[in-house]
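lol so apparently i was supposed to do this last week
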Amino acid sequence: MLEFHALKPLYDSQCQTRNYTYTYGTAGFRDHADVLDTVMFTTGIVAALRSLKHNGKFVGVMITASHNPPQDNGVKIIEPDGSMLLQDWEPIATKLANIASNESFDNLVNYIRDIIQEQKIDIHGSMAHIAVGMDSRESSPRLMNCLMSTLEPIFNAIVINHGMLTTPQLHYLTSCHNEEDIRNVSIETYNRNFQSTFKKLLNIYNIQGFNNCFDNLIVDCANGIGAPQFERFSSLLSQSSMIKFTNDNYLHPETLNESCGADFVKTRQTLPKGVPQEFLQDGNNNLYCSFDGDADRIVFYYIKDSKFHLLDGDKIATLFAKFLKELLTTAQIPHEKIKLGIVQTAYANGSSTNYVKTKLNCPTSCTKTGVKHLHHEAQTAYDIGIYFEANGHGTILFSNKFYQQVQSCIDNIMEQPNGDLEKDERWKACETLLLFSRVINQTVGDAIADLLGVIATLLITKSTPDQWDNEYTDLPNLLSKIVVPDRNLFKTTDQERKLTSPPGLQAKMDTLINKIENGRAFVRASGTEDAVRIYCEGSSINEVKKLSQDIADLIL
Ligand code: 16G
Ligand code: ZN
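anyway here it is w/ 16G bound
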């Protein structure tokens, strides 16, 4: 039974922000932290209702604004299986927040009753179960109070507060809560599972240290929560002194994402601040990576001949695809049995798509920007669905068919006579496939898990960062943004690759694009900022810059 009579005093005390418009966007609600009290209050209610809709299964709620500046914050809801909130519920979350901020208390209660009725939620059945967590921002504890204020008093919900952790850790733990006894699930579950699988994987190949693939691994933690969480992993590699942290100052949240982190490195194509000089000497063979503020994104880079080289999401996807494809070949599992494919967005460099199609002979899909779109395609189209946005957000999904096929391959190998070298290699490949699938966080893109996956791949295949990079060369490209009076006028089709509005603009762009070698460009309205983004690529950077300017001139 819901205690609605107790809601009014909570609403009066928690919802200070009035006459404000909120939107549950690509990555949940995100805004300046000062205006988020009301939306946190209503998001708690939505999460409880979502859990009741799932007959009391655990739903997660994460307070974070990812790579946004320190003064921002945000919140997103996680489904019981660890995936992102079902899209049908995004407008519900938006509407409830806007009613709380702009309408009367009675309207708020009426809309909650409407949701219960329309969604056929049984409020007399199971209790709601919620797992909550937050990143390291200064505003997070205050917003956590707003979020939790209704859960126990109104919904009588069981709440597990995981405190400060990364977004993908909470996604993972939410799914674990629905599989195991809740007393057994904590951050240690995450650490134990990923660490032990990673160790077992490297043990198959007797790998110690970095196997001469690189000297040091330098991890830029964006001064966020990824720092203390990944520190627990650094002793994994027996010579852990080779792992160095920079920007690990998470106890100073005012430095979060400040001139560092995945977004900074990817957009500026340069080193983050704070990399110690000793690692920048010429001749050093170091691998660098940057997490974003909540450690669900990662990009890699290295320095060669004093030049910065970026290994972004496209490079991570192709590294994984090549490795997994070779394992399938060694295991003698044909494509018909396990379909491996890569999911990208329009931002993927044309060279990467070309490499996947022509060199790796793997199918590719293109979806709209936003993880939920890529995730869905990877899940439905492939048995090994590798998805990455160029910005470093991605993971790999392994289907039930994948596990059945690998297991039946192992069973088949066991029937062969002992002492057969080919048999050993096939068995090793199958074991590697199974363990690798568990080093990856299949609920969502995860900087820590992706880092373990990349290290394992490089060490097992004995590849240096340079060799990884040299599989294909990115086409020169440029991403820029411009502010227009109304970005909603910019409507797209074909997975955001073509504009349908404003009328005539795409045709004019096509004329410009066709003039340059390997030209490709698209324009789309940002889902997170009040701006329009222009992406251009082509064979020469000067032509790309000119194309980008010419398109901007068409728009302005
Ligand atoms: C959000 C998305 C990210 C996407 C970005 C695009 C999630 C969890 N995050 O941050 O995947 O790349 O938006 O931003 O889906 P834009 O629409 O402003 O270009
Ligand atoms: Zn993030």
